[in-house]
Amino acid sequence: MRPEDAIDRLQLDEREVRRRRDYFQVTDEDLARLASHRDLATRHNDEVIEALYQFILGHPESRAFFPDAATVARVKQLQRRYFLGLFQGRCDPAYAEDRVRVGATHETIRMPARLYMGAYAVYLELIRAMFERELEPAAARAAYASAQRLVAFDMALAMDTYVAAAEDTIVRHQAAVRELSTPVIRVFDRILLLPLVGTIDTARAQQVMETLLTRVAEEQARVVIIDISGVPVVDTKVAEHMIMTTNAVRLLGAKTVVAGISPVVAKTIVQLGISLTALETRGRLQDAITLALELTGRAPAGRQA
Amino acid sequence: MAPTEAAEAKVLTREALPVRSEDDVVLVRRRARELAQRRGFDGFAQAAITTATSEIVRNALVHGGGGEATLEELDRGGRAGVRLTCRDEGPGVLDLERALRGGFSVTGTLGLGLSGARRLVDEFEVRSAPGAGTTVVLTKWARR
After folding, report:
1. Would you call A201 and B26 a contact, using CB atoms and an 8 Å cutoff?
2. Residue B39 pLDDT more than 80?
3. Any idea what the Cα angle at residue A50 is, between residues A47 and A53, rounded to 5°?
4. Residues of B in contact with A202 (CB under 8 A)
5. pLDDT tens, A91-122?
6. Chain B residues closer than 8 Å to A240 by CB
């Protein structure tokens, strides 16, 4: 996911950042405390990042994401900037966007969340060690507690970036599946076949009807065969959809034949009390095609020639 | 009445599923089919409980604004059953008798959901009052 898209999705305005900060208890005091250690952090910046990458590159799984020296040099530079970001004394939308950018970068190279989060654990440990080495015990504890809260805030943004990217993928796939699952096939001149497969929800029913009507007009079709053998549950919703589609198709001057009605579906439809007498129906697709040929004034395929 | 008929239905499993979107309708009815298969229902009975579940759960979504569906696997004297209890907190069914007769709809649909579902199952109970939501309990038993 592109960083700009991730930022857009998480809607990191003033209010949202405030809400997140409240939850993670990142106070102005924390930010001021960390800012007071900026010189210390600057002095140890290289050392912390070197140690972090020693861990990342020392592990075969995470090393695989850093193919060459140039990449390593580039990400180390970014990490140095990221590390100093903790000691700038601010946690506002600009800060949050910066953090999302880092998360999106890791997501884009498809680094698994567990490797990313594992590196965070090492990172925190390095920060703790730095404070303990350089500060009095009480000051070190306070500084580390502040850093922990801010890093937790950062980690949540990284996770949310991963989740947003995954949700995006699902939405894209749903759209793709919807499109793939409404193929309208021309079986003979002026005869179209629509094999319905899977669940017919409201969005899909709309799309199926629009696609079909467009094709009926384009092909000047006279008969449309709707094969419902791939629909797992034929309930009143599906029946309604078939009736509406038939009515719409009729307005364009074409007839509808419903095929693929199994014995189980036939019994269920009757028990539901649905009347499909307005529709031509056939059990087998082959019989529906024969009927379609008759309806278009042609002898069935078998008797031709 | 034979002793097996009089026996109390034993609940073997129970699971509650949310009803908040059309996807949930699909998930609940798919689960109903799985339970019916597991309980050894034949194809007709499987379709009956699955379709009835689809109708009732969609009603809860469309008319009741969503709610909760509970599915139970039952055993009564060795006879396998599946029960759906579907609750919503919608306005309730204003004219229950008319809705159960079928062909009556306030939303321009076929209006056969409730009456059709009733014909598909063996036991059917609906509790509803204006403003108090609707609860539908339906049970399908495997053929012996």
Report:
1. yes
2. yes
3. 150
4. 22
5. 999 999 999 988 888 888 888 889 988 899 99
6. 109-110
**CATH number of the domain enclosing B119:** 3.30.565.10
Collect all residues of chain B within an 8 Å Cβ-Cβ radius of residue A274. 110, 112, 116
Distance between CA B11 and CA B71 in Å, rounded?
Answer: 10
Residue type, A260: G
pLDDT value for B104: 63
Distances (CA, A) of B38 to B3, B44, B46, B84, B104: 25, 14, 10, 16, 35
A274 inside 8 A of chain B by CB: yes
* pLDDT tens sequence across A235-291: 998 888 899 999 999 999 999 999 999 999 999 999 998 888 878 999 999 999 999
ipTM of the complex: 0.81
- Pairs of residues, one from chain A and one from chain B, whose beta carbons lie less than 8 Å apart: 60
Confidence of residue A305 (pLDDT cuts 50, 70, 90): very low
- CATH second-level architecture of A185-303? 2-Layer Sandwich (3.30)
CATH of A3-176, one of 3.40.50.1100, 3.90.550.10, 1.10.490.10, 1.10.3720.10: 1.10.490.10
Q: Tokens 């198709």 label which residue?
A: A249
Encoded tokens for B120: 């598909």
- Number of domains comprising chain B: 1
Domain of residue B29 covers: 11-141
Residue B102 is nearest to which of A239, A265, A273, comparing CB atoms?
A273
B110: nearest CB among A239, A264, A265: A239
